[in-house]
């Protein structure tokens, strides 16, 4: 068996890996630039900042809920590499809109600029909806059976490293530089996508159902009645519900509770990316390439413990002097800051260890002509769960619940995820 990292030398894997890496990098470069711009330069109210982040998260996942069924059908009916090239061409136009929004908002036309940026977020959601099923479903076509878990782990690790670099870059760039960068990266991603090997349709050609409601219902019905897929999708959905809550509350929590500037906010998001990437690779090593959920319950329960620890640390964190915010150097030098770093890394590493084998289940336990639709069904359920998570943040925010208290909601969901993972382990291992 090839070592998982050895796949990076293979033409059958490397172009896909680089394409998805650049796509994730660009997506997060733009979104982080937008969120930091809104949090630190436009809004001056913690509730408004939190609600904006929740709203941006929600509109970004709406396309997954409405269009995933169509994307899965198209991916299982047509050459997956051809669809990748179409999607990467569309990314150039989306980034033109988003970059324009950044520049317009910076020029003082805030309402118009924010509308353009949020529209770009919606379009990026559509972009990811059509690319998402392919980046996992194409792996069983190009890789051997004992390489799929390693390939999935590399894709997941690469995605979160891309999030890391995109997030850090957004924190270091001015708005104008970020606007130029997203266009350049979109162009490079389009060029690399041309090198992805063909992945033609397997099995009989499908009659595509273009009705998003009936297509989604049939897709979910055809997938969720299979016990192993039901358990895996439910566990992944709980994970992303927790993720939606964390995504929405972190920037305002860093600014208003830890009283830190956007360099610290960028650093916090970067820690998550590093941690999930480490967890993605580590779980492949622990499982020896075998797709299994046996470490899932322990991983997600440990994640819940780290979430509670982080909430307690955040509550006791000393505030900066009135009218000032800690920069990254100040934050790191504080003993409490280092403890928070450890807690965040713990959350991210255990989260990566939990979710990667579940994605591998989706692509290795069905026939190769059904993988894209299986991933698409997962995306429909996941996106609905993320919308619920974002909505919960908004509702609890209006009810006066503070971000540090919302972390307990995340911790409370971990035992449910552990129970689902244990059921899956007993069912399949």
Topology (elements, then pairings):
Blueprint: H1 14-42, H2 46-77, H3 80-106, H4 110-137, H5 139-142, H6 148-172, H7 175-193, H8 212-224, H9 227-256, H10 262-287, H11 296-315, H12 328-333, H13 335-364, H14 371-398, H15 403-428
Helix pairs in contact: 1-3, 1-4, 1-6, 1-7, 2-4, 2-8, 2-9, 2-14, 3-4, 3-7, 4-14, 6-10, 6-13, 8-14, 9-10, 9-13, 9-14, 9-15, 10-13, 11-13, 11-15, 13-14
| Low-confidence parts | none
Alpha-carbon distance between the termini? 21 Å
| Major beta-sheet overview | none
Radius of gyration, in Å, reads 21 Å
Q: What share of residues are in beta strands?
A: under 5%
Question: What does this protein structure show overall?
Answer:
It is found in: Cell membrane. Its main location: membrane. Keywords: Cell membrane, Membrane, Transmembrane, Transmembrane helix, Transport. It holds the Pfam family MFS_1. It comes from Sphingomonas immobilis. The protein is mostly helical. It has one domain (11-197, 210-428): MFS general substrate transporter like domains (Growth Hormone, Chain: A, Up-down Bundle), CATH 1.20.1250.20. It is built from 15 helices and no strands. It has helices at 14-42, 46-77, 80-106, 110-137, 139-142, 148-172, 175-193, 212-224, 227-256, 262-287, 296-315, 328-333, 335-364, 371-398, 403-428. Helix 2 (46-77) runs parallel beside helix 4, helix 10 crosses helix 13 (335-364) and helix 11 (296-315) runs antiparallel to helix 15 (403-428). The longest helix is centred in the N-terminal third of the chain and has 32 residues, at 46-77. The radius of gyration is 21 Å and the shape is globular. The two termini are 21 Å apart. The relative contact order is 0.17.
């Amino acid at each position: 068996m090839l070592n998982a990292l050895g796949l990076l030398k293979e033409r059958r894997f490397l172009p896909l890996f680089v394409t998805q890496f650049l796509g994730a990098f660009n997506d997060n470069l733009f979104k982080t630039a937008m969120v930091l711009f809104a949090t630190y330069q436009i809004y001056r109210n913690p509730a408004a900042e939190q609600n904006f982040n929740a709203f941006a998260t929600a509109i970004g996942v709406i396309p997954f809920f409405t269009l995933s069924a169509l994307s899965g059908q198209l991916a299982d009916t047509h050459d997956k590499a051809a669809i990748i090239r179409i999607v990467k061409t569309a990314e150039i136009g989306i980034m033109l809109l988003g970059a324009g929004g950044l520049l317009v908002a910076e020029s003082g036309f805030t309402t118009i600029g924010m509308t353009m940026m949020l529209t770009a977020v919606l379009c990026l959601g559509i972009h990811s909806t059509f690319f998402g099923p392919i980046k996992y479903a194409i792996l069983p076509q190009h890789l051997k059976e004992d390489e799929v878990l390693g390939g999935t782990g590399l894709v997941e690790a690469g995605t979160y490293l891309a999030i890391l670099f995109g997030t850090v870059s957004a924190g270091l760039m001015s708005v104008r530089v970020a606007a130029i960068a997203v266009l350049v990266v979109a162009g490079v991603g389009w060029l690399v996508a041309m090198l992805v090997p063909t992945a033609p349709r397997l099995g009989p050609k499908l009659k595509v159902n273009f009705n998003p409601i009936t297509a989604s219902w049939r897709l979910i019905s055809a997938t969720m009645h299979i016990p192993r897929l039901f358990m895996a999708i439910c566990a992944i959905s709980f994970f992303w519900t927790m993720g939606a809550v964390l995504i929405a509350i972190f920037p305002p929590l860093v600014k208003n509770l830890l009283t830190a500037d956007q360099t610290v906010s960028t650093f916090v998001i970067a820690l998550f990316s590093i941690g999930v990437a480490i967890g993605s690779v580590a779980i492949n090593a622990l499982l020896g390439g075998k797709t299994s959920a046996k470490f899932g319950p322990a991983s997600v329960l440990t994640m819940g413990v780290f979430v509670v620890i982080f909430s307690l640390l955040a509550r006791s964190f000393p505030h900066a002097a009135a009218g000032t915010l800690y920069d990254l150097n100040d934050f790191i030098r504080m003993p409490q800051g280092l403890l928070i770093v450890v807690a965040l890394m713990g959350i991210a590493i255990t989260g990566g260890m939990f979710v990667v084998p579940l994605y591998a289940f989706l692509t290795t336990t069905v026939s190769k002509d059904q993988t894209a639709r299986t991933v698409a069904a997962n995306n429909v359920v996941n996106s609905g769960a993320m919308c619920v998570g974002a909505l919960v943040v908004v509702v609890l925010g209006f009810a006066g619940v503070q971000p540090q208290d919302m972390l307990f909601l995340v911790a409370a969901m971990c035992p449910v995820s552990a129970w689902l993972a244990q059921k899956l382990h007993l069912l399949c291992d």
